[in-house]
Design brief:
Shape: elongated
Mean pLDDT: 96
Radius of gyration: 19 Å
Structural class: alpha/beta
Number of strands: 11
Order of helices and strands: EHEHEHEEEHEEHEEHEHHHH
Helix content: 25-40%
CATH superfamily of the largest domain: Periplasmic binding protein-like II
Low-confidence stretches: none
Number of helices: 10
Length: 287
């Protein structure tokens, strides 16, 4: 039997990916050489801009933007991270923001305008609370992972060397969107008074928990080695079996469709995508 094909992979460390990272889930045809990532987002820009990896975890907003700009990436129907987002939007306890509706006209910080947590939260704010994206004064700290993208005119860059949390606590921001690094600070509270109820309302309306990270592969690998890509998808789905993470094109359809809608509404795409665009290049029989 020939040696397995080795693919360079960038996969974040979660309880459900430990078996992949440790090699406990293995294949006779594919070996995933996983790089050590401090946080999964460190892989996104190198994958989009340089195709640095063969397989990479990828934020849904970044992937859709990359696809719209013609980057040679193929999406796999595999979810690695999903969560309700409302707990990531914080304000000061003594600040002017009491509820989501108060954010219109306010200064809201976020790592990047294209950050996926921000994508979902802006969608919720517009859809359920009447706060349009362009009614907020967004303050960002870094560029999008897709180099071709430029922030809209209602987005400004924070002063060089400044920090999201420090600006929020100092009153230089009225609210801020965090991610996996959401702080626990007695001086702060969530903008949504009841984050559990807000998340439940989103799920009741749309039927899913917002998806943050999926997986993509280089387009040339998908074209030249479809069986290898199918095996990678099988391994990843095996790792996430038993979790509530949606896997497969059917299960992911509502999340991908709404993410496309939100991206278009928020000015993140140079052209309108369809569901077929999102899955373009995926070898037949996967998902």
């Amino acid at each position: 039997m020939p040696d397995p094909v080795t693919l360079r992979a960038a996969i974040g460390r979660y309880p459900h990916t430990e078996a992949i990272l440790s090699g406990a889930i293995a294949s006779p045809t594919v070996k995933l050489d996983c790089v050590d990532l401090p946080v999964p987002s460190r892989a996104f820009a190198p994958m989009v801009r340089e195709a640095r990896y063969d397989v990479s975890e990828m934020a849904i907003a970044t992937f859709l933007m990359a696809k719209a700009w013609g980057k040679p990436l193929v999406l796999l129907p595999v979810t690695l991270a999903a969560r309700f987002q409302e707990g990531a939007l914080l304000c000061r306890k003594d600040g002017p923001v009491q509820r989501p509706e108060d954010l219109a006209g306010k200064r809201v910080g976020v790592r990047a305008y294209s950050q996926t947590t921000g994508l979902w939260l802006r969608g919720v704010l517009a859809e359920r609370h009447g706060v349009a994206s362009d009614s907020v004064r967004w303050v960002t700290f870094e560029d999008a992972h897709v180099a071709e993208y430029s922030d809209p005119p209602f987005v400004q860059r924070a002063p060089k060397g400044s920090d999201l949390l420090s600006m929020l606590k100092a009153g230089e921001l009225d609210a801020a969107i965090f991610g996996n690094d959401t702080p626990s600070d007695p001086a702060l509270r969530t903008v949504f008074p009841d984050v559990a109820a807000a998340g439940a309302a989103f799920q009741a309306q749309h039927g899913f928990v917002p998806v943050n990270h999926l997986v993509c592969v280089r387009q040339d690998i998908a074209e030249q080695h479809p069986a290898i890509v199918a095996e990678v998808a099988r391994m990843l789905c095996s790792a996430t079996a038993g979790t509530s993470l949606p896997q497969g094109r059917g299960a992911l359809r509502p999340a991908i469709a709404l993410a496309i809608e939100y991206c278009a509404e928020q000015g993140l795409l140079p052209r309108r995508l369809t569901l077929e665009d999102a899955w373009a290049g995926l070898p037949p029989g996967i998902g």
